[in-house]
Amino acid sequence: MSGTTTAAAGLRRRAAGAGANRWVVLVVLCVSLLLVAVDATVLHVAVPAVTEDLRPGAIELLWIVDTYPLVCAALLILFGTLGDRVGRRRVLLLGYALFGVASALAAFAPNAQVLIVARGLLGVGGAMIMPATLSILRHVFPDRRERALAIGIWSAVAAVGAAVGPLLGGFLLEHFWWGSVFLVNIPLMLVSLPVGRLLLPESRGSVGGPWDVIGALMAAAGLFAVVLGVKRLGGGELDVFTAVPLAVGAALLVLFVRRQRRRTYPLVDLRMFARPAFSTSVCCIVLAMLALVGLELIAAQYLQLVLGLSPLETGLRLLPLTFAAMAAGLAGAKLLRRFGPRRMVSGGFCLTALAVLTLTAMGQADNATLLLLGFVLLGFGLETTLFAAYESMLSEAPPEQAGGAAAIGETSYQLGAGIGIALLGSVMNAAYAPGLSSVPGVPASASASAGHSLGEAYEVAAQLGGPAGAALRRAARECFVHGLHVTLLVSAGLLLLGAVMALRLPRVMVCEPPTAKTEPETEREVGLPAPREVVESRVSA
């Protein structure tokens, strides 16, 4: 009896320590996420400096920018499911190390080819880090209430990283050379590696059988081809080099799904998609990102080319969107408990649609108050949607499939972003170009060139000069604002479709009690050894 009492007391002390350590683990995971999120956007402002120094060709410059997101999106499922088998902390720490090495290689790249390789390695490291952070978070916070708060903090950090990237890049470029945007990762990784090894718990799924290497490679190749095709489609390139990757990628993903359904031990348990909450959450993530990325791209062009703001002023105008997203992430757990997944996701979509409709009042003159209101509503609504969708998706997935579920969520995020640029960009071009076909005094060839983009229209107008150039510039601004309004209306329709789709989610946030496990087993799951006295009491029993 006394042995049992001593064992219980020891477990209570360990449980208290584990509870305190959970939040330390969250801090480490958020630092990991911040690095990856910043690196996804920090290069954008450094492109002119890279171009001037390394002199890449047009194709090389495209690959310098796109290799990181392409490789990262393609390998998310591979490394997410690998972490479930070999250990999520192990994959995360390897990702840290690779990210640091690739950052050094990118910082001191002597030519464009080496920089492209380094960006690819950064994508591999990012693919190892991203799903591991979410799956470890799912594991360390078994209680859904605490996990909701943790995911809210995690998503707020993601919003900060996306906004900080360009600002940090601009600051570094003012004081150092372009390689500093990569070099800043190294000291953070040197700290994260030992801290992560010391504090992060090891966990893995209980899925038996061999890891499906062929299936993992099929998924990686298929996703790479699809994302590449979608990116080219978003750039307006409708040719064989766009169609072939899309067709090959789609075929590989279909074969991947068929293979997973036949296997006894699948790489990804596709039965998760049979659960309405899981499949609906994934679709909501795609729709939310589709709206966010497309609108941010068009908004940045509007602020710079129509209103004439500098890149720094543009970034500052977009900051309210980021702050609103942070607030939504931090308040998300409380809102989810109060309103439930269905009302929260659907309400987030409706709030975002309201923000988009508000922004249709934008014209050729600057209206700072309108933009502030629209961006605040947009940031809060989208982050509310994304937070609740991610939380529902992770909670619906079995714990042993946490890595695969996290990878599916992150892949949906990347695909939504790519499709958003392609779809909304196409809508924008379709609404913008026709108005420039018959500008008085402007030759047909100049009108055709001006119809490609507003920036190109300004260049053509400057070459023409005189009344014809002024007329073309004025017409291009008017057509761009018209195209912006049409794009916003299409986006609002998609967001309302998401609000209807979200009605399939559960009405209330179901918080199940912990499963009946022995206490030592529960502690081993969070990386703590079983207390010696409990083992001894079991042996004596």
Number of strands: 0
Give the proportion of residues in helices: over 70%
The low-pLDDT segments are: 1-20, 514-541
What is the count of helical runs?
Answer: 19
Notable traits:
single chain; 541 residues; mainly alpha; 19 helices; 80% helix; disordered N terminus; disordered C terminus; MFS_trans_sf
Written account of the structure:
The structure is a single chain. α3 (58-86) packs antiparallel against α14, α11 packs antiparallel against α17 (466-501) and α14 runs antiparallel to α17 (466-501). This protein has helices at residues 2-41, 47-54, 58-86, 88-107, 112-140, 144-175, 180-183, 185-199, 213-234, 240-262, 276-306, 311-359, 368-396, 402-432, 444-450, 454-464, 466-501, 519-525, 532-540. With 541 residues, it is mostly helical. The relative contact order is 0.12. The model is unreliable at 1-20 and 514-541 (pLDDT under 50). It is globular and about 75 Å long. The protein is 80% helix and 0% strand. It has 19 helices and no strands. The longest helix has 49 residues, at 311-359.
